Amino acid sequence: MLRAIAEDVWAYEKDFRMPFGDLPSRTTVVRRADGGIVIHAPLAFDDAAAAAIDALGEVRALVAPNCFHHLFLKAATERWPRASVLGAPGLEKKLSGLRFTPLPRSGVAPEIGDDLGVRVVEGVPYITEHVFLHARSRTLVVTDLLFNVHEVRNFGMKVFLWLGGAWNKTAQDHLWRLLMRDRAAAARSVADILAWDFDRVVVAHGDVIEGDAKERLRRAVAWIGGASPLLPEEPREAGKRSAEV
Fold first, then answer.
1. Does residue 109 surpass a pLDDT of 60?
2. Is the separation of the CB atoms in 204 and 25 below 8 Å?
3. Are 230 and 126 in contact (CB under 8 A)?
4. Which of 78, 99, 189, 198 sits most deeply, having the most CB atoms within 10 A of its CB?
5. Measuring CA to CA, which residue among 175, 218, 211, 177 is closest to residue 194?
6. Could you report the per-residue pLDDT of 128-187, keeping only the tens digit for each?
7. DSSP bridge partners of 149
């Protein structure tokens, strides 16, 4: 049902049906310091999954973190109508009739509390990926910035991921190269993210990355820096850093 990942961080995992197979997918559930619950990248919840989330605390915020992960947001708002709804700028073109607060470029959003720092990956407007830091557990939460898929149910999905360069390894899908519009801005964004203090990356697709998570992220996105390696700033106190970037 729900799987504990770290202190106050859980995963709800379910395959997402696509024309060529099932893609392993994950919703990340975070409990704020005040007890409220934040649901990141909602999937289709059945009654049992929703009850398990409700048992953790009151759902205060629903987050669609990029312009791809929004298909189940409306259903989530119907389950938790009192929750604040936040989404990546640009989703208003896809979510007609559903009002939401745009996620900030960086810092924190009052609706999700100061437990989660946020930084958008700039320069890729069709994706508008927002990455989150749960400082207390040193956990980075990403959506499509990084894949870490090693097992799938269907051969077609394996081929799909292999063609995108994201099968059986920690990698970024080649789609990012096609959709990149401002590489320098993207490099600055990723350098800011790498400056955060984390040792775990929770991805929306594939296995959670533990241990050498920061280095594996750095290697996967190193191409964005071109000839100049992505060098994060010296690490600072996480809460302060999330407010500054």
1. yes
2. yes
3. no
4. 189
5. 218
6. 999 999 999 999 999 999 999 999 999 999 999 999 999 999 999 999 999 999 999 999
7. 167
Phi-psi region of 206 (alpha: psi -120 to 50; beta: other; left: phi over 0): left
Structural domains in the chain, CATH included, are 2-223 (3.60.15.10)
pLDDT of residue 225: 87
**Residue showing tokens 């959506």:** 143
Task: State the Cα–Cα distance between residues 114 and 135, nearest whole angstrom.
Answer: 10
Mean pLDDT over 77-94 rounds to 96
DSSP string covering the chain, please? -EEEEETTEEEEEEEEEETTEEEEEEEEEEE-TTS-EEEES-----HHHHHHHHTT--EEEEEE-SSSTTTTHHHHHHHSTTSEEEE-TTGGGT-TT---EEPPSEEEETTTEEEEEEEE-TT-TTT--EEEEEGGGTEEE-SSS-BBB---S-HHHHHHHHHTT-BSSSB--THHHHH-S-HHHHHHHHHHHHTS--SEEE-SSBPPEESSHHHHHHHHTGGGGTTS---PPPP--HHHHHHH-
* pLDDT band, residue 231 (cuts 50/70/90): low
Q: What is the mean pLDDT of the chain?
A: 92
